[in-house]
């Protein structure tokens, strides 16, 4: 009789990472169903198959849990926005790719991503520790766009309108602003040509 195959043991750090992932995924799923205010730590823990203690040991409280939910979502979004942007491609081409990626992401999502952004921003107003984490996260996004600008090639006769970091700040502000308007109005009023034209005007002379 063959013995059942033994499952490989995982380290404490791997167990911690797994719990972290499962709890943030559970919090996001329930947030999409119930919103933030009515959702409790106990409900998140039960949905993920844990007691409440791992949430307190990993995150400290509900506010920090939802910061990490937003961090996970926003980093995934940055990966989506920069997908297909290539080192050595022209900045014009990479800005076009950025515009198309943004519209594709918006078309595939509902309003929950924008909702959790506002929830976490509101939490940060009264929580300096979370506000600092939000600044650190914003710096990661800034460096991602700045790096894309820096590794892109310029076409003959083109120059950058400003320092890559300034351009990146302006692009992020434009992306955030347009996303806010679309979230508030529930209307998609942009297309890739429109965004590409705006991005070029902000980045290139």
Automatic annotation (TrEMBL):
<feature type="domain" description="HTH tetR-type">
    <location>
        <begin position="17"/>
        <end position="77"/>
    </location>
</feature>
<keyword id="KW-0238">DNA-binding</keyword>
<feature type="DNA-binding region" description="H-T-H motif">
    <location>
        <begin position="40"/>
        <end position="59"/>
    </location>
</feature>
<dbReference type="InterPro" id="IPR001647">
    <property type="entry name" value="HTH_TetR"/>
</dbReference>
<keyword id="KW-0804">Transcription</keyword>
<dbReference type="InterPro" id="IPR050109">
    <property type="entry name" value="HTH-type_TetR-like_transc_reg"/>
</dbReference>
<dbReference type="Pfam" id="PF00440">
    <property type="entry name" value="TetR_N"/>
</dbReference>
<keyword id="KW-0805">Transcription regulation</keyword>
<protein>
    <submittedName>
        <fullName>TetR/AcrR family transcriptional regulator</fullName>
    </submittedName>
</protein>
């Amino acid at each position: 009789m063959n013995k059942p195959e033994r499952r490989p043991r995982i380290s404490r750090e791997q167990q911690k990472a797994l719990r972290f992932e499962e709890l943030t995924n559970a919090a996001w799923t329930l947030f999409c169903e119930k919103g933030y205010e009515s959702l409790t730590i106990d409900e998140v823990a039960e949905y993920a198959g844990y007691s409440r203690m791992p949430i307190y040991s990993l995150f400290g409280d509900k506010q920090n849990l939802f910061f990490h939910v937003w961090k996970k979502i926003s980093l995934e979004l940055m990966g989506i926005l920069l997908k297909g942007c290539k080192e050595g491609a022209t900045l014009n081409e990479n800005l076009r790719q950025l515009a198309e990626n943004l519209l594709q992401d918006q078309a595939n999502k509902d309003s929950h991503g924008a909702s959790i952004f506002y929830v976490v921003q509101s939490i940060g107003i009264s929580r300096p520790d979370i506000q600092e984490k939000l600044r650190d996260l914003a710096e990661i996004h800034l460096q991602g766009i700045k790096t894309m600008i820096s590794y892109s090639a310029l076409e003959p006769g083109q120059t950058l309108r400003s320092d890559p970091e300034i351009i990146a700040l302006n692009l992020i502000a434009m992306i955030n602003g347009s996303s806010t308007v679309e979230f508030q109005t529930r209307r998609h009023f942009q297309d890739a040509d429109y965004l590409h034209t705006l991005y070029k005007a902000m980045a290139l002379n």
